[in-house]
Amino acid sequence: MIVPDIIIAIDGYSSTGKSSFAKLMAKELGFLYLDSGALYRGVTLFAQEERFIDNNNEINPALEAALQGVDLWFATDNRTFIGERCIEKEIRTMEVSSQVSPIAAVPYVRRFVDAKLHELAKGGRVIMDGRDIGTTVFPNAEIKIFMTADPDVRAQRRFDELVMKGENPVLEEVKENLRQRDYIDSHRETSPLSRAADAFILDNSNMTISEEVAWVKGLIKGKFNLYDD
Ligand code: CDP
């Protein structure tokens, strides 16, 4: 199946498996994968390390100017960097997860990330995941998916992921973090998480990742009248 140079937007709740799915799809279709959440996580790590955010989630407005000097980028293997430093491990910790949603609610942070996403997606042929890709960042994306899954399934998946990475998570805390992020992400004023009217809903509570890929490939095939090779 030869897919044209389109943009595929994957949005949805926290820990619905958007990134694993989008990464696999990108590999199968020969697309560039962009993880918008990694950029919000990168800004959060920077804000924490440079003390622009305190324990009460108070954000120092000087963060806006400081961001202009932050060289946040992706390597070709999708790892996230600030300058020379790979921050892939640090940005996936509970510590970053606990403050990323307040940071991502700040309009100038969103502008900073959106500008990067547009720059990186310039050539088209991109699959991107996040919360507002189909609604705000690329409202003209040709294929839009809105992912959801049962909250307990999501919490267990994230818990297992953290254990695999050598963290020592508490299931209830992971669940509470997902609950809080979903709430903040859906209720913020700027680009809240919501399903674009033309997005297909994918509830993957009981699906394997290959079933998801087959389902989305079917959508693409139907939309562009494509044939299997
Ligand atoms: O992996 P997970 O689904 O838990 O989260 P993520 O995609 O890494 O995103 C982390 C956080 O970044 C989200 O909870 C949102 O607060 C924020 N985010 C956003 O506001 N807009 C996006 N397009 C992507 C992420």
Describe this protein's structure.
The protein is an alpha/beta fold and 229 residues long. Helices cover 47% and strands 14% of the residues. The protein is built from 9 helices and 8 strands. The chain has helices at 18-29, 36-49, 63-67, 94-104, 107-120, 133-137, 151-164, 171-187, 209-224; strands spanning 7-12, 32-35, 72-74, 80-82, 85-86, 126-130, 143-148, 200-203. A 5-stranded parallel sheet has the order 2-6-1-7-8. Helix 2 packs across helix 5 (107-120) and helix 7 packs across helix 8. The termini are close together. Cytidine-5'-diphosphate is lined by residues 14-15, 18-19, 36-37, 40-41, 100-101, 104, 130-133, 181, 185.
Summarize the structure.
Helix content is 47%, strand content 14%. The chain is an alpha/beta fold. The strands form 2 sheets. Strands 2-6-1-7-8 form a 5-stranded parallel β-sheet. A 3-stranded antiparallel β-sheet has the order 3-4-5, with helices on one face.
Number of strands: 8
**Helicity level:** 40-55%
Q: Going across the biggest sheet, name each strand in turn.
A: 2-6-1-7-8
Biggest sheet overview: 5 strands, parallel
Nearest-angstrom radius of gyration?
A: 17 Å
Structural class of the secondary elements? alpha/beta
Average pLDDT, to the nearest integer? 96
What layout of secondary structure does this protein have?
Blueprint: E1 7-12, H1 18-29, E2 32-35, H2 36-49, H3 63-67, E3 72-74, E4 80-82, E5 85-86, H4 94-104, H5 107-120, E6 126-130, H6 133-137, E7 143-148, H7 151-164, H8 171-187, E8 200-203, H9 209-224
Parallel strand pairs: 1-6, 1-7, 2-6, 7-8
Antiparallel strand pairs: 3-4, 4-5
Helix pairs in contact: 2-4, 2-5, 4-8, 7-8
This protein binds cytidine-5'-diphosphate.
